[in-house]
């Protein structure tokens, strides 16, 4: 079958790889009909994620049709149309039972490697390095889905792929980011990053009752999308000083809730397009990353900082003094996608939101390498790219 594979920094290839087969009786095989490229894929693309191997199949935002099920799969049948969450979760461990699916204890076969770095291992993820399971991803014609009774959500309505695909990751991720921000009525919420995750954090902040939303980025189309689709106020961080502007906008109190939807590769850190030397430094750290530091500085005293942005290695020299003295609450994590599938599907079915608004580019799987480049460079107005095998 055809798949997009990783071959090192900025080297994604279209290759023929073996079609996946049922390995465990709880597996299903899904024939992919749509699969998106995520900002998280860019960490791999730019070579920041350790433990990638040449030929790894990329992708963790897929959907399609079930074509085979293992003997112990009860919830799915051949022919079902499903969206597959990027988090692989067993459904039976202590963490899954607490609805903390991205922290599943059983889904990372390479847990030992992850534990060496983190103390304990989070869940395995599709197409996201050997440290997080070494699972082949969904930017391919077919995908093996482990624990098939726990992850995939069935789509019975006639909603298009484009309308439901983002249940796999970025809609729940934006929603959990807004929930983690503990938004209350009349709150002002500042969101750093107006990429796909930022856009859904902004939408979700609106749904959760935020009064004012201030969106921060430097890319005009992305700021425009935040204004148009969520009536956000915007700050271009290349044009204005973010701290000064936020203080001016909030009568010097600062935003009540701050969301970092940027992560490791923030502009202003010297990390984007970095040399090997800088990358190594990112893992060891001095005073980066800029967005976290800025958010801590800007957030109002007693406010909340929610971090959906992915940080890698030790790029986390967080200013703990200000954090403590300003009594900020910090919440973060990979998204517990399974927790949000039914309630967010319901919002789509009810017409409360149509997630397809973020899509700017659609192409065939074969055009994947080109789209990776476009999305990475944020060229050609690219905000979200969807591939169809
Ligand atoms: P993206 O790369 O498309 O968007 C990032 C945006 O941040 C860009 O628009 C960029 O211009 C902006 N940005 C860069 N530097 C900035 C700065 N200093 N201040 C303000 N904005 C800045 O990526 P995305 O798909 O939107 O993903 C965003 C982050 O969320 C990534 O780190 C991704 O890995 C992470 N993510 C996390 C989860 C999770 O489960 N927690 C899931 C999906 C994605
Ligand atoms: Zn993703």
From TrEMBL:
One annotated GO biological process: small molecule metabolic process
Naturally occurring in which organism (per UniProt): Natronobacterium lacisalsi AJ5
Protein name: Glutathione-dependent formaldehyde dehydrogenase
Molecular function per GO: adenyl nucleotide binding; anion binding; oxidoreductase activity, acting on the CH-OH group of donors, NAD or NADP as acceptor; zinc ion binding
Residue intervals of the Alcohol dehydrogenase-like C-terminal domain: 196-265
Alphabetical list of InterPro entries matching this protein: ADH-like_C, ADH-like_N, ADH_Zn_CS, GroES-like_sf, NAD(P)-bd_dom_sf
Cofactors demanded by this protein: Zn(2+)
Keyword Nucleotide-binding: no
């Amino acid at each position: 079958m055809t798949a997009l594979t990783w071959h090192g920094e900025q080297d994604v290839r279209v290759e023929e790889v073996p079609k996946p087969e049922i390995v465990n009786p709880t597996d299903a095989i899904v024939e992919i009909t749509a699969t998106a490229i995520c900002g998280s894929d860019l960490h791999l693309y730019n070579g920041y994620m350790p433990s990638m191997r040449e030929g790894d199949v990329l992708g963790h935002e897929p959907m399609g049709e079930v074509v085979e099920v293992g003997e112990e799969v009860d919830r799915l049948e051949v022919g079902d149309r499903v969206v597959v969450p990027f988090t692989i979760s067993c459904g039976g461990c202590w963490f899954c039972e607490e609805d903390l699916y991205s922290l599943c204890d059983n889904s990372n076969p390479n847990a030992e490697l992850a534990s060496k770095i983190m103390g304990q291992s989070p869940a395995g993820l599709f197409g996201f390095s050997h440290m997080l399971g070494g699972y082949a991803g969904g930017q391919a014609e077919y995908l093996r889905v482990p624990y098939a009774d726990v992850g995939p959500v069935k789509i019975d309505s006639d909603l298009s792929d484009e309308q439901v695909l983002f249940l796999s990751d970025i809609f729940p991720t934006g929603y959990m980011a807004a929930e983690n921000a503990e938004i209350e009525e009349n709150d002002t919420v500042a969101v750093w990053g107006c990429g796909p995750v930022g856009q859904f954090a902004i939408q979700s902040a609106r749904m959760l009752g935020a009064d004012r939303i201030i969106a921060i980025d430097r890319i005009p189309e992305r700021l425009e999308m935040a204004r148009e689709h969520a009536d956000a106020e915007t700050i271009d961080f290349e044009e204005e000083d973010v701290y000064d502007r936020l203080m001016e906008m909030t009568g010097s109190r600062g935003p009540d809730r701050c969301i970092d939807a940027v992560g490791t590769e923030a502009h202003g850190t010297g990390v984007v397009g970095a040399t090997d030397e800088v990358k190594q430094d990112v893992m060891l750290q001095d005073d980066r990353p800029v967005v976290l530091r800025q958010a801590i500085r800007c957030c109002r005293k007693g406010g909340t900082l929610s971090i959906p942005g992915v940080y890698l290695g030790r790029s986390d020299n967080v200013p703990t003094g200000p954090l403590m003295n300003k009594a900020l609450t910090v919440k973060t994590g990979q998204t517990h996608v399974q927790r949000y599938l039914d309630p967010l599907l319901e919002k789509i079915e009810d017409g409360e939101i149509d997630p397809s608004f973020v899509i700017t580019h659609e192409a065939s799987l074969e055009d994947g390498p080109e789209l990776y480049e476009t999305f990475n460079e944020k060229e050609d107005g690219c905000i979200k790219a969807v591939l169809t095998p």
